[in-house]
Amino acid sequence: MNTPNARTPVALALPTLLLAIAAGCSSGGDDGPSTGPTGPGTSGDTRVVIGQIDRMGRPGVSTALIRTDDDEDAYNANGDPNTWDAAFRAPMLERVRLIDGLDEVPNNLVTGSADSLTTLLIDDRLQIDTSIAMCDAYLALEIGLGGCGGRTLERDVIDDTLRHLITGDPEDTNPLISDLANANDADLPSQWPFLAEPFASTDN
Amino acid sequence: MASRESGARHPLVRRETRRRGTPLGGVACAALLASGTAFAADHRDSPSQLLNPQADINDIYAFMNPNDPEELVLVMTVVQNAASEDESISTFSNTINYDFLIESSAGTTVVDNLRLRCVFPSETRISCSLGDTTATGTVGDMTQTLPENGMRVYAGLREDPFFFNGPGLNMTLPEEDEFATMSPGLMFQAAAAENDGEADAFAGENTLAMVIGIDRDLLTANQAAPVLKIWAATSPR
């Protein structure tokens, strides 16, 4: 859909070509999403993703808790939640322990141990209780903070995550346990579609 | 609406991730990609994502509409710093599926697994489906209200709502795991100081956003299974 950029390296065109080939092999039409066959492991199986390119649940998990390029690519390509724990527990646990130790106090994590926090985070999905209207705290359901959970646009989830990992206290006000980026740089509208207008200039 | 000062840059992040306009041979390209990822929410989080920005999920969000407690709002953003000199891409891809995978549960019992899939039949159209429920829209149109069938969509270029001092974490957690001897807070201060006092490395950036508003009853068996686990994925269409 994009006009090819004359400066674009050849390597950048390859994934587009592969995607085009894959698209030609799929059963999808041109007008809308296709469902395909629905059995386990098929393109219509709503529990898994076939041919996955990227995935995300919680912010910063793949970037901060998965360390090597190979592991990060494997992490992103894995579209079956039932295999995430077995595939990535070891490298994630190592990373959780290292970050926990930044305050030189081991095992002060929000769930009490590196093992239990790894178990929580490796199920890399946002959890939300849709019966509760008020949403604010991050990991609210997982660690019992109250509210709907999920992730709001305004929430400083990075500071939350630093506190969960480094001192274990989600209410910690120690200014050293903060990345100092505390709010978005544009006002977010309270109405649909909730995200701010784009910056006009593109010269950054 | 904030406006961005002309020429503002974030060199600690950009120097690692910039790639557009840089002609690279195979070896040089591989070397760049090997060190090209940086700390973020999910932006450019692995070498394969650097090659495919339109499939690179930046962030996802899930919250109840503060104006309508029965509407769940799901947001997925892709393409870091979209439509900029750093990243010229300004459209979604018509060869990619943009999915939300949703598991509903009641207590400890998983009730259902659902997939909400969005695709772009053309550069200006988005179509999202959840089972038999479909919502379509024109890219950039912000006028949709929640219809009778319970789902509405928005897609377009928006300000990136993520904020993070990624360079500070880079300094705190270097590649070699030789952690800085300074405290985390001081490393974040040092990174901000190096960036003209700006701690947010994502300040001034835009992204491509999909926003889906959906009647919670469609996902929760009419609230019989109100707790959802949600993740997002991209795949070839």
Main features:
heterodimer, A: mainly alpha, 7 helices, globular, B: alpha+beta, five-stranded antiparallel β-sheet, four-stranded antiparallel β-sheet, 16% helix, disordered N terminus
Residues in helices of chain A, as a percent range? 25-40%
Name the average pLDDT of chain A. 83
Strand composition percent of chain B? 25-35%
What low-confidence regions of chain B span 5 or more consecutive residues with pLDDT below 50? 1-35
Mean pLDDT of chain B: 82
- Count the beta strands of chain A: 2
Structural class of the helix and strand makeup of chain B?
A: alpha+beta
Shape of chain B: globular
Distance between the termini of chain B: 36 Å
Topology at a glance:
The complex is a heterodimer of chains A (204) and B (237).
Chain A: H1 10-25, E1 54-56, H2 61-65, H3 69-77, H4 84-100, H5 114-122, E2 126-129, H6 140-143, H7 157-167
Helix pairs in contact in A: 4-5, 4-7
Chain B: H1 11-17, H2 26-34, H3 47-50, E1 57-64, E2 71-78, E3 96-106, E4 109-122, E5 125-130, E6 133-138, E7 151-159, H4 166-172, H5 184-194, E8 206-215, E9 227-236
Antiparallel strand pairs in B: 1-2, 2-8, 3-4, 3-9, 4-5, 5-6, 7-8
Helix pairs in contact in B: 4-5
